[in-house]
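Question: I have long wanted to understand how a fold can be written as tokens. Here is the record:
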Amino acid sequence: MEETIIGRNPVLEALRAARRIHKIVLEQGIRLDARITEIIRTAVSTGIPVAYLSRSELDRLSAHGVHQGTIALAELKPQLSLADLAAVSQQRGSPPFYVVLDGIEDPHNLGAILRTCDAAGVHGVITRQQRAVGLTPAALKAAAGAAEYVPLVQVANIARAIDRLKESGVWIVGIDNRAEKNFLSLDYRPATAVVVGAEGAGISALVKKKCDFLVSIPMKGKIASLNASVAAAIILYEVLRQREYR
């Protein structure tokens, strides 16, 4: 099976990450900017076929996503496990730092969260196999290449996955805009997993019970809550601040 990667940055990062790509498809007459030039040069040097098709054909291949005249048809990544994430933490030589996504359904939110996870040094992301968005072309586009670098584990049951994390000594911190505890009051330097709930609904009741701490982000305006990806970014950078700059 193949995965469709759309957009200049996602395709370029997939090439830079040595992803197994079957074909690069470019729009006929595409302007040769620095990114397109690097994409073509890398593809040619590594033996990846490059085809030139009409915009309508690229629209069809991308399911009418914003492809910027650039598509890659890539081999699906191998499925990772929680044990793989533990190995990543061990390799990095720092306490585990994970993100658990409890039902994120918007591909743009997923992509934005993956982008922040890469920037903040998250060791891996855990998400549901069902009732949640996967790595769709839109999510990969929003991630701007970060999906190539952030390990992603899909599990059948988030609550059970959290139990396994807790058994291995990971503290579970859920973002809940109704929680009394301010997110700044916690020490995130030990092994930590930050749980981000679904857009609107938040963290499910069962997963909320599994959390060691529920924290909220202070809101001074009229809006009751933040977008899921924005809330995640605020807390992930607090984890990074405490671990790297405290």
The longest strand covers residues 21-27. The chain has a mean pLDDT of 92. DSSP finds nine helices and eleven strands in the chain. The two ends are 45 Å apart (CA to CA).
